[in-house]
Structures are given as C-alpha cells and as structure tokens.
Specification:
The protein has 200 residues and is an all-beta fold. Helix content is 0%, strand content 42%. The strands form 2 sheets. Strands 3, 5, 6, 8, 9, 10, 11 and 12 form an 8-stranded mixed sheet that branches. A 5-stranded mixed sheet has the order 1-7-4-13-2, with no helix packed on it. A hairpin with a 4-residue loop joins strand 8 and strand 9.
C-alpha cells in the first residue's frame, strides 16, 4: 500500500522508517493506510462551514499531523476524570484534503466489561468544515485522524482496534477480524465546548 507520511509534531516519517502496518520504536503502532476517503459522514454528524480558525481563548487547540509525544498531553490517560460538566468535542479541518477521524472516550456505562472506553468513527471532514463528535462528562478523550494525502494525527496514549467501515460505535476491548490497530492522541477538554483544529 505504500508508506504514510507524517508531518509536523512527530517529524517526517520516511518509507524506510514507517511502512504500512509496521511498528515504531517505543511501541507506537503505525496506521495501516486502507479505507475509502470519500465515505459520507457517519449518522448524526452535522457539518458546518467555518470561516477559518477562531481558537482564541479557552475554546480549543490547533494540532499538526505526525506522532504526538506523550509529554504534550497533560492529563491522566488511564482515567476518565468524570466531572459534573457536559463538554462538547468538535473537530475542524483547516488542513486541506478530506480528513477521516475516529475517537475514543470514557464510557463506563456502555463499555463496563469491555475496557471502559468507547470507540466511534469514521467521520469525513472536508476543508473548512467542523463536526461535533461527542458530548461527555469526562475531561479526557483520544483521537486518530488521517488525510487523503497520507498525513495523519496519531499518538501512543491509547491503542484501539477499529473497522474501516463507517459508521462504527464500539468499545476498547471489542476487536474484530480485519480491524486496524491505531495509536491515538490525547485531548484535554479544558472548556465546555472544545474544538480540535487540524492544521498543516
């Protein structure tokens, strides 16, 4: 299938370093670049046109493609840190090519016997569009995103197994034959409405 090219935070990954389906030093599993990028957004997804990033103040953060080091995430990646506040999580494509996205979120009610964390995806987000992916009372969540040009947003804070089909709504320990293994980045939702702006 070829190699993935990660840009930005984690440096550039060359074909000699990370080929499709290969592992990375430090236990980070690289995504396997399969799946259709022209899939329609998952059920219930609302897309809105945005006029560029408006992320001043405590409303979100901008993140570049590549592997995110653990040190960038200030939260407790193992716990849900449940609060009394319901927080909204949004993603915006300010990168360019269509982006596919999946998330993991604290869900002890539905995933009590399957790892306590839910998994959900795939959303397709075109340039300038935003998608509302989650309402949660937890402060922490995780995500993986990949662009049609091969760039990806990944990390090593949580490893999940996901199908290529869209939509899916599952749990951390519900692996199926043919699932992809992905490393996710952490998100600290520091405001009631938090937007992750996917940028170059």
């Amino acid at each position: 299938m070829g190699a993935l090219l990660g840009l930005g935070v984690g440096g550039i990954l060359t074909p000699g370093v990370a080929s499709a389906g290969s592992g990375m030093d430090g236990g980070v599993r690289m995504p396997d670049p399969v799946g259709a990028y022209d899939d329609p957004p998952a059920r219930g997804v609302v897309l809105r046109q945005q006029q560029g990033p408006d992320l001043t103040g405590p409303h979100g953060e901008s993140v570049s493609p590549g592997l995110a080091p653990k040190a960038r995430f200030g939260g407790d990646p193992g716990g849900g840190s449940v609060t009394n506040v319901v927080r909204q999580l949004h993603f915006r494509n300010s990168y360019g090519p269509r982006i596919r996205l999946c998330i993991s979120f604290y869900s002890p009610g539905t995933c009590a016997n399957l790892g306590l964390w839910g998994t959900r995806g795939w959303w397709s987000i075109d340039l300038g569009q935003s998608v509302h992916v989650l309402n949660t009372d937890s402060r922490w969540a995780y995500f993986f995103a990949e662009a049609a040009d091969g760039a990806f947003w990944a990390g090593d804070l949580q490893i999940i197994h996901v199908p290529n089909t869209s939509p899916f709504d599952s749990c951390l320990y519900n692996q199926r034959i043919g699932d992809r293994t992905l490393g996710l980045r952490g998100i600290d939702l520091r405001a009631d409405v938090w937007t992750v702006n996917l940028v170059p």
